[in-house]
Amino acid sequence: MSSPTMVEPLVTNSLFILLMLWLLATPYVFLAYYHYAVRPDL
């Protein structure tokens, strides 16, 4: 029912939100890797 002009902004916003979440989560992934793989005794 919805036209492509309504769908495209939703897809763009979803991809932008996913990119922002990935950028925010990346440092925590590296910290977790460093904590468990490099310094497991901490």
UniProtKB/TrEMBL annotation:
| Species this chain originates from | marine sediment metagenome
What is the recorded name of this protein? Uncharacterized protein
What are the entry keywords? Membrane, Transmembrane, Transmembrane helix
- Record field: transmembrane: 15-36
